[in-house]
Design a protein that fits this description.
The structure holds 3 protein chains of 3 kinds. Helices cover about 50% and strands about 15% of the residues of chain A. By secondary structure, chain A is an alpha/beta fold. By secondary structure, chain B is α/β, with parallel strands linked by helices. Chain B has a single domain, classed as NagB/RpiA/CoA transferase-like (Rossmann fold), CATH 3.40.50.10420. In chain B, the strands form 3 sheets. In chain B, strands 1-12-7-4-2-3 form a 6-stranded parallel β-sheet, with helices on both faces. A 4-stranded mixed β-sheet of chain B has the order 8-5-6-9, sandwiched between helices. Chain B is globular and about 70 Å long. Chain C folds into 3 domains: about 110 residues, no CATH class; about 240 residues, NagB/RpiA/CoA transferase-like (Rossmann fold, 3-Layer(aba) Sandwich), CATH 3.40.50.10420; about 60 residues, no CATH class. The longest helix of chain C is centred in the C-terminal third of the chain and has 19 residues. At the B-C interface, helix 1, helix 5, helix 6, strand 9 and strand 10 of B face helix 2, helix 4, helix 5, helix 9 and helix 11 of C.
């Protein structure tokens, strides 16, 4: 029996400014995964920043202005997908709050929020695909970003995807307190309160080192750049990558975060 | 304007336009409804570092008190609550035990009280202040012995509150209702848990079956 | 209570460098949170009971004035003197007057954060009345003239050696060569000293974990028994409680008690939970002859109906503090005053003003763990952000503000953004060699961390050109 052919889902890929400017390979990895999943991937060129730095700094006016940009650029897609729990969380959890006193924009923000997803959970929960025939020979551990974990409910999806990567041995961070603890990034917090941020990332790194992993994977570039930067300053041999790179195979083409090609 | 008027007015004006919020339905957790109330009470009290002895009758109290003090090498004196239950026991059966009655003073090493109820869900004793139950007995002595009748053991806090309501009338409490769960403790120095901070170092519960 | 809130960043740096403190903070991370999980595992309905407790508070706050009046009526009928204090000055005056009328020379105190908030001790001392903290942790920090570093474990920042040192200096009545190496010996010494103080005190002051409208009672929870000795032995007992402490019924109190200790120390319930209703009755063999309750507003009524309304659900369990990565990095003294951790960072700007306290809500990664563990479901990250909005609206010119505004302006103009970022990342890539150990304007980052250099090109640009 042949089911009627459904048109592919039209996806607006919101790369996030960090991926856009610092690590385009994560964007290509995300696009590759979505294409493999049968989606029609679009990258609106009007995309810049989701407005989270402004929003978290109390600059509601600029956050709203940037949100309007994002809404306009992405509202015509079936879904909006971002390779980041933090930026997807900004759109899904906080855009509606930004416009709570503005009827028409509130409706648009809510409609965008409802179809915005973090990449890994989108692949597993919406598409229903957790195997991308990937191979990555490594002892790896995984950092759940706070936004992915607590705002977007991403946890098991990343594990399901990693389980189907050949050669990948997952060594989870153990310890009730450490397993879901913050890496100390917090956006501008990491610069404004650098000493505190460093103390927090050091605690995270001690937990990461305890796993015996050679590679740290994660789903949010902000956290990963923070942890990688501190790992490298401490002279650690642990390398860092976004999980999308591993799933899409772009790790074969790009060095780990902060390392020379 | 008095502070009272001002505060109440400020509360009302800031709440103006706020949605009302209905009180929730009350829930008693399953652990407040144990199958075996007495066994659960004893297990939970011991978990809170109390010790428990089970007596067949009120008449066994003097012997149990004397034995407890002797077992712990504690001088055989006790300040007992002027509670009617303790009026009926034959203290004279324990000639080596010095018993005085009344509220506790600083020098009293051991105290004996009678609880209104015991709550199984956390092994908690419920003591109500009154002529037969001085509050000082609960806190000043180093060793606090408490009589509770097994018939007064209940599952949940709500059951104990209901019992108090039966005694004192609804919405009325004696001056002090003390819930006591294990002996006094502190972890204020390096999080090291130590018994006997300011209150009793030991709590010994005498569960009396008949009476 | 003096405040060093304005020195937050320097205080934090000091905390990070303090080895004693860091050891204490690791113990804290191992202690309370683990015990909390264990306690929750023994109560399958914990989550539902938290929801119920939250709804109780929501309902009470929505009818706060009515419940306070109901409480007052019942308490007064039981013989209590109920006083109302709009602010700290009111509370200090009322309490001093009661103590003076009682002819008090010494006053014992149970641990009460709002008495720290309105600085009762300083006021009594200045008027010739000696206040004595009796909670062991509070007693130690009173001897050291320090603020509490944690709302439920005020001396958590100290090592046993520091405590021993303090006792040797202050307890001159003991022989100088006594052995004070173990916490047990220190506790026994404090017990001896404080027992005399309990017995001699003329007035006892306690806080209240709850006021119960149904019965006119005040409730305190303690583990040491100090609160009970404080309120039972002196002739006069003064309760100081803030307006949001009232709950409707004994039943409601039972629900809150079921989540309070489990969230705080991870006990099923504290050792002592005491319901006090009025002074000693005519036939009572003991208990205070006078019972006063001071109901304090101090800015709380203004929080009702606004963005910080939900904070008034707080039952001061400190779960948010115990789980906060920032608190665990810097300790409580960095916050510079009475309250620390996420709950402090939300409360203090309201009590002390943003001019002094703007760093507190800013110094958070907004990781959300606090809201996760809060039994009352208080949206702490949202409120931290609301304080940041208020602070931003004050318009202080800062480098961060300038940077943010520039970034936001650029990001609102996608074409210009493309141009500028392409040049910028291009330059950085050429000099990067994988990562930077130092970058101008990024010193806060590169002092302790390398910074990954851009891979080259922007994703959007490369995608548009069909590369890769």
């Amino acid at each position: 029996m042949n089911a009627p052919e459904k048109p592919p889902l039209k996806i607006g890929l919101f790369a996030t400014c960090l991926v856009d400017l610092l690590r385009p390979s994560v964007g290509f990895a995300a696009a590759r995964l979505l294409t493999q999943a049968g989606c029609d991937v679009h990258v609106p060129t009007a995309q810049t920043c989701c407005g989270q730095p402004a929003y978290n700094s109390g600059d509601a006016k600029d956050a709203r202005a940037l949100a309007i940009n994002v809404i306009a650029a992405f509202e015509n897609f079936d879904y909006v997908v971002a390779p980041s729990g933090s930026c997807a969380g900004m759109i899904r959890e906080h855009y509606p709050a930004l416009f709570k006193d503005d009827g028409p924009l509130k409706a648009r923000a809510e409609s965008l929020a409802a179809k915005t997803h973090e990449l890994l959970s989108f692949l597993v929960d919406v598409i229903g695909m957790d195997n991308f025939d990937a191979r990555f020979d490594a002892r790896a551990t995984y950092h759940d970003s706070c936004a992915a974990l607590r705002e977007m409910g991403v946890h098991g999806q990343a594990r399901a995807l990693m389980q189907n990567v050949q050669g990948l041995a997952l060594h989870e961070i153990t310890g009730e307190q450490e397993k879901d603890s913050c890496c100390g990034f917090g956006g501008l917090f990491s610069v404004k309160y650098a000493d505190i941020s460093t103390r927090i990332v050091d605690a995270k790194i001690e937990a990461i080192e305890k796993t015996g992993a050679d590679v740290l994977l994660g789903g949010d570039l902000g956290c990963l750049i923070n942890i990688a930067g501190r790992l490298q300053r401490r002279g650690s041999k642990i390398s860092t990558r976004h999980l999308a790179e591993v799933l899409a195979g772009t790790h074969l083409e790009t060095p780990p975060i902060g390392e020379k090609g | 304007m008095s502070a009272r008027t001002q505060i109440l007015a400020s509360i009302r004006s800031h709440l103006a336009g706020c949605a009302s919020a209905a009180p929730p339905a009350h829930r008693v957790p399953a652990r407040g409804r144990p199958a075996d109330v007495v066994a659960t009470f004893i297990a939970e009290a011991e978990r809170a570092q109390a010790t428990v002895a089970r007596l067949s009758s009120i008449a066994a109290i003097p012997q149990a008190v004397a034995a407890y003090l002797a077992d712990h090498n504690i001088p055989a004196t006790i300040r007992a609550a002027p509670h009617p239950v303790l009026d009926t026991v034959a203290w004279a059966e324990q000639p080596l035990l010095t018993v005085t009655r009344g509220r506790a003073a600083e020098a009293d090493l051991n105290g004996l009280s009678v609880a209104v109820a015991g709550v199984a869900e956390t092994g908690t004793l419920v003591l109500c202040s009154g002529p037969g139950s001085p509050t000082t007995l609960n806190f000043l002595p180093d060793n606090h012995l408490v009589v509770v009748r097994s018939a007064d053991l209940v599952g949940a806090y709500e059951d104990a509150l209901a019992r108090i309501g039966e005694i004192y009338g609804p919405g009325t409490l004696p001056r002090a209702v003390n819930w006591v769960t294990g002996p006094s403790r502190t972890a204020d120095i390096e999080q090291t848990l130590l018994m006997g901070a300011h209150g009793p170092r030991r709590l010994h519960i005498l569960v009396v079956d008949d009476g | 209570m003096r405040s060093t809130i304005a020195d937050f960043t320097a205080n934090a740096r000091k905390g990070i460098a303090d080895k004693n403190l860091q050891a204490a903070l690791s113990r804290l991370s191992e202690g309370f949170p683990m015990k909390r999980l264990e306690a929750i595992s023994r109560l399958p309905e914990f989550k539902q009971l938290c929801d119920e407790a939250k709804q109780i508070k929501d309902h009470t706050l929505a009818n706060l004035a009515d419940y306070l009046e109901a409480y007052e009526e019942k308490a007064t009928a039981a013989g209590a003197h109920v006083h109302w204090a709009s602010d700290g000055a009111d509370a200090r005056d009322i309490i001093l007057k009661i103590c003076q009328d009682a002819g008090a020379k010494t006053v014992t105190k149970g641990k009460s954060m709002i008495s720290e908030e309105v600085a009762i001790n300083e006021h009594l001392s200045a008027n010739g009345i000696e206040p004595i903290e009796t909670d062991l942790g509070e007693y130690i920090i009173q001897l050291r003239d320090e603020p509490p570093s944690h709302i439920i474990a005020p001396a958590i920042h100290l090592s046993k050696e520091q405590v021993a040192e303090t006792f040797r200096t202050e307890h001159t009545e003991f022989s100088a060569d006594r052995i004070l190496t173990e916490p047990r010996a220190m506790l026994d010494e404090a017990r001896t000293v404080l027992r005399r103080r309990f017995v001699a005190a003329d007035v006892g002051i306690t806080g209240a974990n709850m006021l119960i409208a149904e019965t006119g009672s005040s409730v305190i929870v303690t583990n040491e028994g100090n609160g009970d000795l404080t309120q039972t032995l002196p002739n006069t007992h003064i309760v100081i409680a803030s307006i949001e402490k009232v709950v409707p019924t004994l039943e409601a109190a039972a629900t809150i008690l079921r989540v309070l200790a489990r969230s705080a120390t991870g006990q099923d319930i504290t050792v002592y939970t005491t319901f006090s209703t009025g002074p000693a009755r005519p036939d009572d063999p003991d208990g205070p002859q006078n019972y006063h309750v001071v109901i304090l507003d101090n800015g709380r009524s203004k929080m009702l109906g606004g963005e910080f309304h939900d904070m008034l659900r707080c039952i001061k369990c400190a779960a948010c503090v115990n789980h906060c990565p920032v608190y665990k990095a810097i300790g409580g003294h960095a916050y510079g005053w009475v309250y620390s951790g996420p709950m402090g960072a939300v409360l203090v700007p309201g009590l002390r003003g943003l001019a002094e306290a703007h760093d507190l809500p800013a110094a958070s990664t907004l990781c959300g763990k606090c809201q996760d563990v809060c039994p009352m479901g208080i949206p702490l990250p949202r409120m931290l952000r609301d304080w940041r909005t208020r602070d931003f609206d004050r318009g202080r010119p800062t480098a961060a503000r300038f940077g943010l505004k520039t970034w936001a302006w650029l990001a609102r103009h996608p074409r210009l953004y493309r141009l500028v970022t392409t040049i910028g990342t291009g330059v950085l890539m050429i000099f990067g060699g994988g990562r930077f150990r130092w970058l101008p304007l990024a010193g806060g980052w590169t002092k302790t961390r390398d910074l990954a250099a851009p891979e080259g090109g922007s994703f959007v640009g490369l995608w548009k050109r069909g590369e890769r």
